[in-house]
Amino acid sequence: MSEITAIHWVYLIMILVILITMILRKDTIIPCIVGIFLIGWVGTGSFISGIGGIFDSFVVAGVELLDIIFVISIIVAMSKMLEDIGANIIMVAPAAKIIKSPNIAFWVSGIIMLLISWFFWPSPATPLVGAVLLPIALKAGLPAIGFAVAINLFGHGIALSSDYIIQGAPAITAAAAGIEVTDVMQKGIPLVITMSVVSIGAAFILLKKDMASGKISVSEHNSSWEEQSQIKEIGRVAKCAAVSVPIVFLLDIIGMFVFELTGGKATALIGGTATSVMIIFTMLEYKKKSLDKIVEYIREGFVFGITIFGPIIPIAAFFYMGEISPIQSVFGENILPVHSQGILSDMGLFLARSVPLNKPIAIITETIVGVITGLDGSGFSGMALAGSVARVFGTAIQGSVEVLAALGQIAAIWVGGGTIIPWSIIPVAAICNIDVMDLARRNFKPVMIGLITTTIVAMFFI
């Protein structure tokens, strides 16, 4: 095991500072930048390295987020084109007849997101589902924040943490725990069900409560929708786009399945399709003016993307320093002790080996380890550690390694996979045009309630 050094304690202290800042509803950019500087200064002993590391960490974070920035920007450009020509009104009309209430909009949107995410993962599913269903949900009376919560928790929560189809998460966890993938999946079913029902149920109840009290309203969205539908003159190009665009994206889904495209490749297919759709229908609608309009739409899309992602890059940069590759890229390979697995992994392993063991303590610690490793906003970076800790704990207490591994997997992904860490829920917030911190705060309580309940339930299956 790698030793815990001053860098680890600096990182931990700055995480606490950032969490307190979030609780106080203040912006966390400055604490994150200070944290990056202190890590560099303490780790290298050079004030200059700490200063230079701030910019270098931004570059590393920007590269990591670049594909997300691009696909969101292109989707927004396409959506703006469809809105200008009036195609969006036609596209949502059939679904709007079915989704007539906020409740139906919440559950239908979430379930569709869950099914698509199981097959293709949430990253490419987010812009696809968001672009098509968000206008329908708004018209049905569901707030944009409510729609975001639904697709976020069903996709990045339930689908990603269970991962029954692609089996990426359980494969990593099982390999580290020295058990079969099917064992992790089967033993984890009660925990997945508990986490899903409790978290989604709590989120829905809290959302309905705030809607009833008037704390959240969609009146502005509805009025703008009605105004748009009244003044928009629907032409032949708009009608053609309204029919063609859903078909094209449906073909994308089929193509992902047939050619086994997941992750970045699936996201690239969505982005390329959106770009093509935007160009083709802009040319058909605007003809001689199309070249200028295409540039205009692309500019609007990327302005939106940079506006949304700009403040997030410094925040993401700090938390990426918790992983071994980014921090070594910024400050050099000697920044961490020999045999280090990264700051977050080292801290999680240190905690796991420092507490007295019995079944309740082992289960609680497994959850905490999963949460800690998820703080980098990845989720998957903590899978190996969650599996390793499960093997150590399960053997020591003569309990179920499979249940512990499944619990650690759920904790790491629900926290880090994209439900409560602000820099990991950017795509959902961007597609729904809401503040990323608002979404993180709204998800926080339901997810924490779910994790506590799931940890308690795990004690009956250990």
From TrEMBL:
Presence of keyword Transmembrane: yes
Source organism: Garciella nitratireducens DSM 15102
Record key words, sorted: Membrane, Transmembrane, Transmembrane helix
Superkingdom of source: Bacteria
Transmembrane segment boundaries: 6-24, 29-52, 58-82, 103-121, 127-152, 188-207, 240-259, 265-286, 298-321, 411-432, 444-461
Protein name: Transporter
